[in-house]
Amino acid sequence: MKKGEKQAKKTLFGPGIKIPNTFEAAKVNELPALAGGPFTIVGFLYFCAAKTANPLNCMIVPKIFFPPYVFFAAIVWLCSGGCSQNPPAPQTPDALPAHYSPQDSARDSVPEVDIDYLLGRFDPATRKDFVAIGKPYTDKSGMLLRREAFEAFKKMFEAAEKDGISLRIISATRNFRRQKEIWEAKWERYSKATPEAKARALKILEYSAMPGASRHHWGTDIDLNDLNNPSFEKNGKFAKAYAWLSAHAHEYGFCQPYTAGRAHGYKEEKWHWSYTPLSKHFLAVFKNKITDKDLTGFKGAETATEIGILQHYVSGINTACQ
User: Would the pTM count as exceeding 0.85?
Assistant: First the structure.
């Protein structure tokens, strides 16, 4: 063995002995107690490569003490996990926390929406964020709902079923075109009894929104079981369902926007429930970007500003839903 090699060997296995100049930059004598252990070669390579300006120098000393195949195996082992300069990818949990709810998911990724969306000027059937509602959640065909809202409803539906409560969606997303059909049918129906435009609009607004101002445009709101309040009241067919919803709907992100006792807006609707993790955000954007003057394209639209649709109807909801 040559003198330089002997010095290098002593340096690896005992500090304090001078090493050749070629290893000064790597400061091999600073290695901790890895020397002598089963991972000496790997420890040396990792430490040396971090210290020296020329990592090729690190290949000289191990070659002296280890057979070539051992040295090659160590290089492969080290580079399989240690040679990449990229930081490790963040770990994704296999499962969400037990308390993580559908509304948490929605809040984590609230979608951006534009004015046309909020006004209902789109076809929900063409959008990937809307899904069809089928049995057993409804007895009707062709209804759609935002995916997040439907997933939350399915969980609420299952919980209600376990408690002996039946919930069925009878109306869901309605775009501008469909809301216009409903509005203008009533506009014609009340034309003789209420010829004056503002009075006629106010009559329709008892239970129907102007096109462009309906929460049903957003894909977050649903009507359940029946469209008559007495059905949900004492001795009514769905009195137990309403009591269950009042007690538990919030656990799944749903809120009744049109309750009794509000100063303004539509009359009470015990059947109407809104998925607030999305609808609260949509409402805030609506109030920020849209005015009464944006409500156009239907009979009686000229009354929107005089009535104050945004202030009294869009905003006139249960404060728990805002």
Answer: no
pLDDT value at position 109?
A: 72
Q: Say whether 113 sits in a helix, a strand or coil.
A: coil
Q: What's the pLDDT tens digit per position in 39-95?
A: 445 454 544 555 555 555 555 444 444 455 544 555 544 445 444 444 444 433 333
Average the pLDDT over 151-170 and give the result.
98
Take residue 80 and report the two structure tokens written for it: 């399989």
Residue 30 CA to residue 15 CA, distance in Å, equals 7
- Percent of residues in the chain assigned helix, strand, coil, to nearest 5: 50, 5, 45
Decide the pairing of beta strands 272-275 and 254-255: antiparallel
Give, in order, the Cα–Cα distances in Å from 50 to each of 54, 74, 236, 261, 267. Answer: 10, 16, 77, 72, 73
- The β-bridge relationship of strands 272-275 and 169-171 is unpaired
Could you tell me which CATH class the domain 102-321 is placed in?
alpha beta
In angstroms and rounded to an integer, the radius of gyration of the C-alpha atoms of the chain is: 35
State pLDDT tens for residues 177-214. Answer: 999 999 999 999 999 999 999 999 999 999 999 999 99
Residue 132 DSSP SS3:
strand
Residue pair 241/232 in contact (Cβ under 8 Å)? The answer is: yes
Domain range annotation of the chain:
3-81, 102-321
